[in-house]
Specification:
The complex is a heterodimer of chains A (497) and B (371).
Chain A lengths: L12 H12 L7 E2 L2 H4 L16 E3 L4 H14 L3 E4 L16 E4 L6 E5 L4 E4 L5 H8 L4 E2 L12 H7 L6 H4 L2 H4 E7 L5 E5 L11 H4 L8 E8 L1 E2 L3 E9 L2 H13 L6 E6 H11 L9 E9 L1 H17 L2 E6 L3 H12 L1 H8 L2 E4 L9 H15 L5 E4 L4 E8 L4 H20 L15 H7 L2 H14 L14 H10 L1 E2 L2 E2 L8
Chain B lengths: L7 H17 L3 E3 L20 E3 L7 E5 L4 E5 L4 H9 L3 E2 L13 H7 L16 H4 E7 L5 E5 L11 H5 L8 E8 L1 E2 L3 E8 L2 H13 L4 E7 L2 E8 L1 H11 L2 E3 L1 H12 L12 E5 L13 E4 L4 E5 L4 H10 L3 E6 L13 H14 L17
Parallel strand pairs in B: 1-2
Antiparallel strand pairs in B: 3-4, 4-8, 5-9, 6-7, 6-8, 10-12, 10-13, 11-12, 11-15, 14-16, 14-17, 15-16
Classes of the chains: A alpha+beta (497), B alpha+beta (371).
């Protein structure tokens, strides 16, 4: 039951020719791609379930190029879909059949690095890890570390409000971006935030971060850098029961500790990754926790001791503390390679991203185990346990239509359960096109209307990444009619439509 | 966030008042304890005399499970009540909010968006209110109740309106309930005092920040730099060794930081216009020839001066920041730095998305542009 999406379909060739001609009045020929063999590589992002060849791909090299492209697109009334590295997992960069795919990959310069102020001013196409590499000589780094950090760009991170395994302690993108510059869909220059810690108006930067490219096109980002800790050590703790591991997570938090990372993998996940990464995971344990401390040598020693005491008191059957950096990285290798490992053991996998209150962990994992039976698909679980962000990996076969349908239904069931227990359908991967229907369930009609009004405040033309992030009222009405939940119509209030 | 039956009448009263005001285009001033009446511009009433909306009867903690590190409470809940409740569980707000009086409420604290000394501290336990906002329930300008965000740590579903509400000064809607992330109280804390000038103070604080020193607050005034260290015992001990200076007793330290936060220390006991100048911490000296108190590693500079607003604002802008006339407005000066035309227009459009008739706290932040 994949949603019928806006912007999918055949290319209108005369329109394509008109827009190409207009763009070429300003841009060099090699910056405007429209032949199928050139545009095909852009047909999807990290969510490969959805594909659409874009009408045109443009590759601006400067901020001024971006402005001109937006002005040309406005004059012709053409939709614009911004794209970074295309690593997103929710289809946020899925192209539009009648639109321009605006790749910001060539805007990839680190413009300024100020070690005193601990900030970096970068273009949107700079890769997440490249910021940390540029900052390294100064003993600084950019903290948010999504698993795709080698490839993903800061522009994409801003669009998605990306997290990572260390955001429990260091915050999400929204907590680490000080300011952005960019253009409205009409090509008007805008700036939000500043190098100062606050501004004189509404905090519109909070809306921009995580807006999935629907409000403005970002052309410059000012990020906060933090000092690299002298030392990091990681505890690997085994548990005989998943619930016990969940309780131990709560106990660590209750003890007043905010670990640098606090991750859980269930047995299915450790058994899936171990053959590939040889991390030394305890394969007999029902679940393992990775619990990291960073700071000075003394601080780390103090915190590791404190965390070990709590974990033992809450039923850890085995504790191993990384003795050196190589071992620490090996502990993490399994966690960070969970997605590729899933790709090796199964033809396809579908990664979910719900976040739940921590105390619901046991209940939700139990329910997922029951769903594995119901949908007859395996689902190893890795997750950011410290902040309740689940990543169930549903293993399926895309060449088997029935398997796809079951995977899809399995995913929807997990998302709905996340909402039911007081959580959200997406903790860090974004809504994109993937979870657009579930937003109809998570937010009521008046709240969704507010989202639409915000979108219109920035983009009255609704041409910036249309069909993503925020469902139209019409879409939710359609979904409500089709979707009967627990024997009751999901949206009784929409009957009058 | 369920509304319990005993709170329904209060909620209904607020909804009725807003619906009535919306129908009659009656401007409203949202005001609880009135502890921050001085902050921002007077509500201009737009088309007439503003009527007051008092959310204090909508009060009480809705949910608090210490292991979730989140509290959900109604906006009218006294701030002091929440701080006492969470302190008993060894937790606190990472933004150390000023109260500015006994009547301060949870909602007023969020709407004002003001953070205290811990704002620029190192590590996960410090930040602005927006950094800790997880969810909010709002009564909009047409009397509808909207629910943004949630109670979980990570949530990227829908636009992040909860954070936008922090510091929106009641110009978007009536905040009904909010969920805010909490942080554990530090295991150890110590406050040091040393003599230095303002340039030295900022240089030291910048160096210490780059060295990950556990600084959770700083205050420089009249040649004295006072620094608070918070964190693991070893981190604080290490900080003491690096910072040096003389030790303040726990009681002295508590009184001092409370005085800075609540603006009861001597510096604030004067009648000159008090400017709140927010600039990058590493910016040069303001050099306005007026007394200053600096917090947040130099990123927040309080200046008492009768210099023209244009002079103060121009200097703040040159240094990459802005200046707010915080207290003792001599009259006729807009409190907040005016926005650029496009910023103003976007802001007005966003406001209209929540409050199409412009009934809430009109003009408290900026005059609304036509839209």
């Amino acid at each position: 039951m994949q949603p019928v999406l806006e912007g999918m379909g055949a290319i209108d060739l005369p329109l394509q020719q008109r827009v190409v001609a207009a763009l070429r009045t300003y841009l060099p020929a090699d910056a405007v791609l429209f032949e199928a063999e050139q545009t095909r590589p852009y047909e999807c992002d990290g969510l490969t379930l959805y594909r659409q060849v874009p009408m045109i791909v443009v590759l601006p090299a400067t901020e001024a190029d971006v402005r001109e492209i937006l002005r040309i697109a406005s004059a012709l009334g053409v939709p614009v879909v911004p794209r970074g590295a295309g690593t997103g997992l929710s289809g946020g960069a899925l192209p539009h059949a009648a639109g321009i795919l605006l790749s910001l990959a060539k805007l990839n310069r680190v413009l300024e690095l100020d070690p005193e102020a601990r900030t970096a001013r970068v273009e949107p196409g700079v890769r997440n890890l490249a910021i940390s590499q540029a900052a390294e000589p100064f003993g600084l780094y950019y903290a948010p570390d999504p698993s795709s950090q080698v490839a993903c760009t800061i522009g994409g991170n801003v669009a998605e409000n990306s997290g990572g395994v260390h955001c429990l302690k260091y915050g999400l993108t929204v907590n680490n971006v000080l300011a952005v510059r960019g253009y409205t869909v009409l090509g008007e220059p805008v700036e939000f935030g500043s190098a100062a810690l606050d501004g004189p108006g509404l905090d519109l930067l909070s809306l921009i971060v995580g807006s999935e490219g629907t409000l403005i096109v970002v052309t410059e980002v000012l990020v906060r850098l933090v000092p690299k800790p002298v030392l990091a050590r990681c505890i690997m703790a085994s548990f005989a029961e998943v619930d016990a591991a969940g309780d131990a997570v709560a106990a660590v938090i209750a003890a007043g500790i905010i670990p640098a990372g606090l991750e859980m993998m269930d047995q299915a996940a450790t058994r899936m990754v171990e053959p590939f990464v040889k991390a030394g995971y305890d394969l007999e344990a029902a679940a393992i926790l990775l619990c990291e401390s960073d700071g000075t040598v003394d601080e780390v020693a103090e915190e590791i001791e404190r965390m070990s005491t709590v974990l033992r008191a809450h039923g850890a059957t085995r504790l191993a503390v990384s003795a050196n950096e190589a071992e620490r990285l090996r502990f993490w290798a399994g966690r960070k390679n969970a997605f590729p490992a899933a790709g090796r053991v199964s033809p396809d996998y579908y990664c979910m991203d719900g976040t739940i209150p921590r105390h619901q962990l046991g209940r939700v994992l139990g329910a997922i185990r029951d769903m594995e039976v119901k949908y007859n698909l395996r689902c190893p679980n890795v997750f950011h346990a410290g902040d309740g962000n689940l990543h169930p990996l549903i293993l399926f076969d895309a060449n088997d239509a029935d398997s796809v349908a079951r995977a899809d239904a399995f995913g929807v069931a997990i998302l709905e359960l996340s909402i039911a227990v007081g959580g959200t359908v997406t903790g860090e991967h974004g809504v994109g096109v993937e979870k657009i229907n579930q937003l109809c369930l998570q937010f009521d009609e008046v709240t969704r209307a507010a989202f639409i009004n915000i979108r219109l405040a920035f983009d009255p033309t609704q041409r910036l990444n249309p069909g993503k992030a925020i469902p139209t009222l019409h879409r939710c009405a359609e979904y409500g009619r089709a979707h009967v939940h627990h024997g009751a119509v999901a949206f009784p209030e929409l009957e009058r439509f | 966030m369920p509304t319990t039956p005993q709170h329904l009448p209060e909620l209904a009263r607020l909804v009725d008042q807003v619906c009535m005001a919306a129908a009659q285009r009656q401007p409203l001033t949202i005001r609880a304890g009135g502890t921050k009446d001085f902050y921002g511009n007077a509500v201009d009433g737009n088309t007439g005399v503003a009527e007051q909306l008092d959310p204090r009867s909508y009060s009480g903690v809705i949910a608090y499970q210490p292991t979730e590190l989140v509290i959900t409470a109604r906006a009218g809940t006294p701030l002091r009540e929440i701080e006492t409740l969470i302190a008993a569980q060894g937790q606190m707000f990472g933004f150390e909010p000023p109260h500015f009086g006994v009547g301060a409420t949870f909602g007023g604290c969020i709407a004002a968006g003001l953070a205290g000394p811990r704002r620029a501290g190192m590590g996960p336990a410090a930040g602005a209110i927006r950094d800790f906002m997880l969810g909010a329930r709002v009564l909009n300008g047409t009397g509808q109740i909207q629910q943004f965000g949630g109670t979980v740590m990570k949530n990227v579903a829908g636009y992040d309106v909860s954070r936008l509400l922090a510091g929106s000064m009641g110009t978007l809607g009536v905040l009904l309930e909010a969920s805010v992330k909490l942080v554990p109280r530090p295991f150890s804390e110590d406050t040091r005092r040393l003599a230095c000038d303002e340039v030295q103070a900022r240089a030291l604080l910048s160096r210490w920040a780059r060295a990950s020193l556990a600084v959770s607050a700083s205050c420089w005034c009249e040649g004295q730099l006072v620094v608070r260290l918070s964190g693991a015992h070893s981190a604080v001990m290490h900080g003491i060794a690096v910072v040096g200076g003389e030790d303040l007793s726990a009681a002295e330290a508590t009184a001092f930081w409370s005085g800075v936060r609540e603006q009861t220390v001597d510096f604030f006991a004067q009648s000159f216009p008090l400017w709140r100048v927010s600039v990058p911490a590493t910016a040069d000296s303001l050099a306005l020839g007026a007394p200053e108190l600096q917090e947040w590693g130099g990123a927040l500079r309080w200046v008492a001066t009768t210099l023209p607003a244009a002079t103060v604002r121009a200097r703040a802008a040159t240094l990459g920041g802005h200046a707010t006339l915080f207290r003792n407005n001599p009259g006729g000066v807009v409190a907040l730095t005016p926005l650029s035309a496009i910023q103003q227009s976007l802001e007005s459009r966003v406001r209209a998305a929540f409050d199409p008739h412009g009934i809430f706290n009109s003009g408290r932040m900026h005059a609304n542009a036509a839209c």
